[in-house]
Amino acid sequence: MEELFRVENVCMAFGKKEVLKNINLGIRRGEIFALIGPSGAGKTTLLRILNLFEKPVCGTLIFNGLDTGKTLRRRMSLLFQTPVVFNASVFENVAYGLKVRGFDKRIIEKKVVEALNTVGLPGMGKEKARMLSGGEAQRMAFARAIVYDPEILLLDEPTSNLDPANVANIEDIIKRIRDERGTTIVIATHNIHQVRRIADRVGVLLNGELIEVNSKDGIFTAPQDERSAAFIRGEMIY
Ligand SMILES: Nc1ncnc2c1ncn2[C@@H]1O[C@H](COP(=O)(O)OP(=O)(O)OP(=O)(O)O)[C@@H](O)[C@H]1O
Ligand SMILES: [Mg+2]
Fold it and tell me: Is the CB of 59 under 6 A from ligand 1?
């Protein structure tokens, strides 16, 4: 499969603290790539770097064969653990990214309707966003993140605050976004069962090092690193 995003020799530090060490990783177009590892391993930091929110201390990011610059921002979209909800209608919340990008009103309407359909909130545009349940608010956040058709969707533990029914719902949406829109997805998660359900490939981060990249089947049946195996078995404390 063709590579969409390439991370070469990336390192990151906050003050003297090394948070990412020499990360090399290729994300393939159209895949669901799970980033797993204990708390503090550097998952969020890596997602923020992929989203160009943060400039790494060293290394290169190559997107679609080109060295990244700020102009690429609209090709990526990052979704957080807790949905950000503006005190306005669902429509306004979802339309936000299109408005700041200066899209035409009719195109905005069409794209918002499509995005709300994809996340299973059809016809909810007029509702007050603050009135939505936690699961609905997270689905609205997904609609906002995909409304401008990013090539890559970065998800930072998008289901960790949800009950099992809503987790299943969000996992369906993640798969649907990939299947229907061809969006490449990188998801940071603590949830090994989630990895089993939705991922194609997996990267294991530990203390800022990417200790293993493997297919889903590979990581569950024959992990290459004993520490990945321990994490998969749930023996690692985090
Ligand atoms: N802005 C910052 N300033 C200083 N240290 C930071 C900053 N952001 C992250 N760190 C540190 O970098 C390390 C990695 O943090 P990060 O949030 O990337 O981990 P994580 O794998 O996402 O953890 P979790 O699973 O708990 O979300 C941690 O030790 C954290 O304290
Ligand atoms: Mg995190």
Answer: no
Cα–Cα dist 171/180, whole Å: 14
pLDDT tens for residues 147-200?
A: 999 999 999 999 998 999 999 999 999 999 999 999 999 999 989 999 999 999
Residue at token pair 């203390």: 207
Query: Which among 44, 46, 49 is the best mutation to test ligand 1's pocket, defined by most ligand atoms within 8 Å of the CB?
Result: 44
Residue 104 Cα to ligand 2 middle (Å):
36
Low-confidence ranges of the chain (pLDDT < 70): 69-74, 237-238
What is the secondary structure of 46-107 as a DSSP string? HHHHHTTSS--SEEEEEETTEE--GGGGGGEEEE-SS----SSBHHHHHHHHHHHTT--HHH
Cβ–ligand 1 contact at 189 (below 6 Å): no
Q: Which residues contact 99 (CB under 8 A, 6 or more apart)?
A: 108
Q: What's the one-letter identity of residue 36?
A: I
**CA–centroid distance, residue 107 to ligand 2 (Å):** 34
Q: What is the pTM of this model?
A: 0.94
CB proximity list for 183: less than 8 A, separation 6 or greater: 30, 146, 149, 150, 151, 152, 153, 177
Ligand with smallest separation from the Cα of 36: 1
Q: Which domains does the chain have, with CATH numbers?
A: 3-81+151-232 (3.40.50.300)
